[in-house]
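Project channel, design review

CF: Before we commit to the Shewanella scandinavica constructs, I'd like one complete example in the thread so the newer folks can see what an input/output pair looks like. Taking PH domain-containing protein.
RD: sounds good, go ahead.
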Amino acid sequence: MLKIRLRRPAKYRIYFLILMIIVYWLGFNLLPEQLTQTSEQLSLAVVSALYFVLLPLLYWYWIIKIGAQKSWKILVILSLSSLMARLSYPPQIAEYFEFIAWLRFPIIAVLLLIELYLMVSIIKGLWQARKASGDPRLAIIAQYAATVEQELGNGANELRTLNIEGASNTDMPKNQMPDDKKLTLGLILATEPASWYYAIPYFSRRHPASITPLKLLSAQPWHALVIIMCLIAASTLSYILLDDVSHIAAVFVSGLILYSVVLIAANYRISRYYSLYQREGKLIINNGIWGFMAIDLTQISELKFGAFVTHVQPQQMGGKSVGDSTAINATEILTIGRGDTANVQLIFKRPQTYYGGMGQLPEPLTVINLVVDEPQVLADALGILQNYKKVS
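CF: and here is what came back for PH domain-containing protein:
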């Protein structure tokens, strides 16, 4: 039986998505076309409270606080609620959200730019991946880190804890941390050449060999085949449904869905061949194409063998600090790999950043669980046998 294990932040993201769909559906179906009665005004007040009070509050707590995201992302749900208000409110109220309607012109321009970007990015991604010797995402992050170093001037030396070839893992003060919005954009752009680099075996022929693979569902051939077939079906269906409305929209949407096949192919090859490897003094962990982290080997405090569950009781850690970091008091830790329990646990001296959602959901971690094929091979490769413990 297929078991789906979700961490607390992921569960709340799904809860919020379902609730958001329900709220917007209620708004479109409950609001009248005209406000002529007191009951209709009451309906408008209730829907407005759902749009601009309930959803933002839940987004702040479920997505930003529980998911450890930046506060500025609250603008996402406020903008979306404003758009839904413009489309669902009675005309005399909707006109106050007319500024949203003006966005249709830049949106059309953006769609055209996306079409151009896709064509350019395909060619550029193929060219960049042709000579790459490692994950292009890590190279782009290195370029970003170098740019930030120049901006910081004399204080640039402290930024070298960024794991230049990987993720932003540092204990720098918050006021000296690089702008995460720039890094987010950089990772979006890096995903394109990375998908081509991993999707085509010839491009990744010089990639460092895997230490031992993680046990990931996406590493199974049948999983990739099912998703590709679903994408082909979705692309065909979207073209049929949209062709009567707009031929351009039909071609764009169906083409964009079909283009995702490259991403799925990359996800499969990463999960199967490159999920766990070592490069230039760092341990690279790839959770498919969707998430990754680069850990400096000097920041690994302990490597443990045994059976580890996702939910951790406080007494398991004993409230002790790990290296110079604060005590591990979280009730849930990230587990990468499929299985009832993890067989490897890594504990870090300082928080290391895991970039989920293709780099859009960064999360600092002090401990991580892995489900690997051969734990002993991992310990031998990292050369930290003196620091590993076997947990019964």
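RD: helpful, thanks. Residues 212 and 357 are 24 Å apart (CA to CA).
CF: The first helix runs from residue 8 to 30.
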